[in-house]
Design brief:
The chain has 294 residues and is mainly α. The chain has four domains: 80 residues, Conserved hypothetical protein from pyrococcus furiosus pfu- 392566-001, ParB domain, CATH 3.90.1530; 64 residues, no CATH class; 65 residues; 35 residues. It is built from 14 helices and five strands. It has a three-stranded mixed beta sheet. Helix 5 packs across helix 6. It is elongated and about 95 Å long. 17% of the residues are buried.
Length: 294
């Protein structure tokens, strides 16, 4: 491709052309990878410094690869090629690009943008909540019901609201297939399966009048250690209060699993296993202590 026919725009980089880097490339005397340019307008997407080095050396032509896509696609490709290779983008430039991508791809997840721009998901989250120079303070990239992750799958931002929609759809069409409900609500069949399973495990929330009356008349279930004077007088303090504060039930677990952010699933699962193992150690030591006294 003729060097003179290529259009160079340094708006992707805040600092513009780095003359020191151009000199280093010029010393290679044309031994560079091909530059990437958009086919329709000859705009250089990747290789601005190589084009500058070619002009410095007086070269008339430069090896070029063509890119087909719009301005937003070109920005994504530029970031992908320059975060780790060539002249790396500075942190300030990566944040600036992430802000531009948020406006172009509002439905992308924080983790997807973070991986592309080599910044943390928390940084993307902070950039997402910045209204910038909008006088009315509106932030359109916050108003998305779902976001597309690194695997190109869309997931709801508010999982509790999503679960409520799935529950309503299941109750309205109890005989519908998983795929039918999933298509109606806009979730995966696996999500529908998990919600349906949690509903089947949940207790009946609308008992018949006779059952309800019996429940009101029945005394609340008393746990065997409640009111135990020995436990109340433990050297470590209020054992019963401490023990009950860590109590959970199956239904509560099922509900909270459905609202757990997917980005924290593995960390929470690891912590749950750690706590479970601690309780197993507690139980084994308590039983071992009792066995020694017997």
């Amino acid at each position: 491709m003729a060097v003179a026919d290529l259009n160079v725009d340094c708006s992707f980089r805040e600092s513009g052309v780095n003359e020191e880097h151009v000199q280093l490339l010029a010393e290679l005397d044309g031994q560079w990878p091909p530059v990437l340019a958009r086919r329709d307008d000859r705009l250089v997407i990747d290789g601005v410094h190589r084009v500058a080095a070619a002009r410095l050396l007086g070269r008339k032509r430069i090896e070029t690869e063509w890119f087909d896509g719009g301005a937003d696609d070109a920005l994504v490709e530029f970031v992908r090629r320059n975060v780790y290779h060539g002249l790396p983008l500075t942190l300030r430039e990566r944040k600036r690009v992430a802000s531009r991508l948020l406006r172009a791809h509002a439905d992308w997840s924080d983790r997807r943008l973070a991986e592309l721009c080599a910044i943390s998901p928390k940084t993307v989250g902070r950039l997402r909540t910045t209204a910038g120079d909008r006088p009315n303070g509106q932030v359109p990239h916050l108003d998305t019901g779902s976001r597309v992750g690194r695997d190109d799958r869309a997931r709801p931002v508010n999982r509790a609201a999503m679960r409520s929609r799935v529950v309503e759809a299941i109750k309205a069409q109890p005989g519908a297939s998983l795929r039918a409900v999933a298509a109606q609500v806009g979730v995966s069949p696996e999500t529908v399966r998990l919600v349906r399973m949690s509903l089947s495990c949940a207790p009946d929330t609308e008992p018949t009048p006779s059952v309800a009356g019996h429940a009101r008349a029945a005394a609340p279930r008393r746990l065997p250690w409640e009111g135990d004077a020995a436990l109340a007088s433990c050297d470590a303090g209020d054992f019963v209060g401490w023990f009950d504060r860590t109590s959970i039930n199956e239904q509560d677990c099922l509900e909270r699993v459905e609202t757990l952010p997917l980005g924290r699933v593995y960390e929470i699962a690891d912590e749950a296993r750690r706590r479970s193992e601690m309780w197993m150690k507690f139980a084994r030591r308590a039983e071992a202590r009792a066995a020694k006294r017997s």
